[in-house]
Amino acid sequence: xxxxxxxxxxxxxxxxxxxxxxxxxxxxxxxxxxxxxxxxxxxxxxxxxxxxxxxxxxxxxxxxxxxxxxxxxxxxxxxxxxxxxxxxxxxxxxxxxxxxxxxxxxxxxxxxxxxxxxxxxxxxxxxxxxxxxxxxxxxxxxxxxxxxxxxxxxxxxxxxxxxxxxxxxxxxxxxxxxxxxxxxxxxxxxxxxxxxxxxxxxxxxxxxxxxxxxxxxxxxxxxxxxxxxxxxxxxxxxxxxxxxxxxxxxxxxxxxxxxxxxxxxxxxxx
Length: 270
Known about the structure:
- One of its GO terms (molecular function) is ABC-type transporter activity.
- The protein is mainly alpha-helical.
- It has 12 helices and no strands.
- Helices cover 72% and strands 0% of the residues.
- Helix 4 (73-96) packs antiparallel against helix 8.
């Protein structure tokens, strides 16, 4: 076990050495994906914003009172949906990062393990715009910046941690089977509905609530709301924090081990 952990740390350390290349590739990927056409970035923003607007219009009457504190439903919704969109983009991008860059895989001196990380950072640039939208809505609704907003980088790191492990795992498996795309699609669809994006954790009976945190996005979504709405620190629920870190590190370890094991065979398949 110690050898696995030591090997994983070395694996991550080697990627850190390529940080300049990772950033350059991330910027280039963002330009190609969103700035390659006149409406590229607008379309990327339009789809999730249209979904938010639709949900808000349909459910604003029924959900206009979220809990006992009368939180505006629109703010509650975007605080849940924005991190989910970022998470889903990172997972999908990481899964396809290797197969979509097969020309780089065959280069002997190229560190293929940075590809899922490139997609995560590329998607982060778009997520920054959504964070500005959340901040604007929060201020408009009377939720002004507080010291709790400073903890937002922690939740961004949480998304980074969980999606990097998933990206390495799914990206490596995807090289050998297209079925991984279908599996991830089903998991993301299911995950969307079992994540409290437009419903409350408190609506689940307390004795079953602990099972919600098997889904790591529950902690992150609630964290965004604690940051922008409820003014709670990330360590306020220490059990939820430890639960998340446990699963995130397990996912990261599995991702590293899987990618290292399958990496030597990528060029043979692609």
